[in-house]
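Example 3.
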Amino acid sequence: MKKKYFLNANILDPANSIEENGGLIINEDGNIEAIGKKVNENNIPSREKYIDLKGKYIFPGLVDMRVFVGEPGYEYKENFRTLSNAALSGGVTSAVTMPNTNPIIDNVSMVDFLKRRGRDKSKINIYPTASLTKNLEGSNMTEFGLLQKKGIIGFTDGIKTVQNTRVMSRIMNSAYDLGALVIQHAEDYYLAENGMMNDGVISTKLGLQGISDVAEKIIIERDLTLLDEFKCRYHISQISSSKSVKLIEEKKNFLNFSCGVSINNLSLNENDIGDFRTFLKLSPPLRTEEDRISLVEGLNKNIIDVIVSDHKPEDEEQKRLTFSKAATGSSGIETLLALSLELFHNGSVKLNTIIKALTSSPAKILKINKGNLKIGNDADFCIVDLNKPWIVKNNNLVSKSKNTSIENKKLQGKVTNTFVKGEELYKL
Amino acid sequence: MAIKTNKAVKISQKHLLGIQDLSISDVNFILSEAKQFIKLNRSENKKLNVLSGKTQINLFFEPSTRTQSSFELAGKRLGADVMSMNIVNSAIKKGETLIDTAMTLNAMHPNLIVVRHQDSGACNLLSQKVNCAVINAGDGRREHPTQALLDALTIIEKKEKIEGLRIAICGDILHSRVARSNIYLLNMLGAEVNIVAPTNLMPKNLEKFGVNKFSDMKKGLKDCDIVMMLRLQNERMNSSFLASNREYYEYYGLTPDKLDHAKKDALIMHPGPMNRGIEIDTNLADDINKSVIQEQVELGVAVRMACLKIFCN
């Protein structure tokens, strides 16, 4: 690989507190050789060409902690190849995949298959999770130790929640012994039964069964009570309500854990469901505008650590149904960054906070050396035109599934180039 | 008999999906048309030809006796060709989706499709895929517009107005499309609406719909002109919404002592089918001085005739 030189970039690397105008040099091995304001024309041999970025931004490649891939079992929704193309177009270079496949990722032999497919077909870094419990049944835990040795990054039942308190306490003990990361999707099944959207005015109006915010809070409260006894690595996948933000703020004073939020819940509210728009049937559900504002505040106050895309590709057939029968989830890995930037452009969140929640924070929770631009590291990064306007059209989406929650939304800021290990794998 | 049509008045909607979509002039238009059909339905010769040559398809995904027969009769009296789809034997049982069913029926060029479906919003989805008018005959727990319109017509026939009346709607509000449609319509027509339900069967944030909420029936019925009872579905007992029929009847069943809190001339309504001895005392249900339940069924046909006629054009 030839060396690459970039100049006149706005470099933002929250992990290393770099926020300055400067350049970037990538060596022959695809690693970062030099970065920052010290890199200028004088560092570049006169025979070498450099790229003048003219003030465009360089961010570390995004680390998306919640991604569903259809492989194995649902390849018609998304496979590793289509996922990685979608991810690259959105500046995502590392993705944590959920175990909700068919068959479910709950044993060592599945991991071998996954690692092989991920390596052969994906151009981005794939970090697979395995399920917390066998067959996602919530009763018997999987082999955290053996699965970790095979390369599993963390454990979660994905769209499901461990309901049994005793099982959960044993999971935490075992995770503590083995240093495993437990990721919980917080929803009490009994309270959320048959629920399709936030329980409130809109659900009453549309005649749809609601999901109370208490269903989320009660699981978080239970898990944090357990965590106080059994101190494992614990992460709440996504929160959706102001009640959860308040609870987590209080508990973070004396407990060590982390939590995430979906970009959907940060950007949209229940009113966006309008006339039964099934693409906005999400889990956790979109809640009120007050809840959304509270989540944004939570991000600003470091109560929320991570922003995820909650990328859940679903084919059209699963969405062209009545709201109650339609599948849950939206495709979003390629719009994660641009939609997040809306929070910067409208003045709600600082750019540094957003990028941190998309890069170094998830990397730190996962204990991986990604999401930063440290010298010597893999040159995983994206170049972003921060002000470029564009409109989300489902036909233009790279992902195999077109179920975006933000069809026709006007966004500002677009990834123009994405690099993995120094190689340019996406160019607008 | 001659049926007049007010040519100057037009309906604002293509489909009748819910009361939420209608304006007050839409509602008055439908009710005034319906009034004309009341007399016709009581006369010897009930057949008209205003919809002759038109095709009406009744698509009922949920069992229904009175609504389906009411729509069928209404269509036939207006001279339409009415076909009622038997869902049990249809392709839907073979896994056909709602949209595909809609497209198939659409290809047969109907003028009207009357739909009853167990999912809220099903009629909205269907209406986006067909060229003809869609009449909602009840979708999930969202709306049942013709029921609310026939209730309003019954009240107007008996009390000569709706504005200023105090009307209590009692029972399983959470799962009731009849309650939702009536809340919109009665509010629009100027009534004061009291909602009476055990908290387990009360939808969230209902006060934001401009109604008064009560979990004590006697308080909710105080000085009411109309007491509208809703059907309690048996399966509610299984999921701990309520402890037992017996206890429900004790606290929320309409009995003479609870009715005493309403006005002396208060009328009793029920969309049917009734659970006698659960939500309503059997003698009260049959009390011809108080109960207008049979009139509701009668006027239902007139209201549906008006809706078919208006939305067909």
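The mean pLDDT of chain A is 96. The radius of gyration of chain A is 21 Å.
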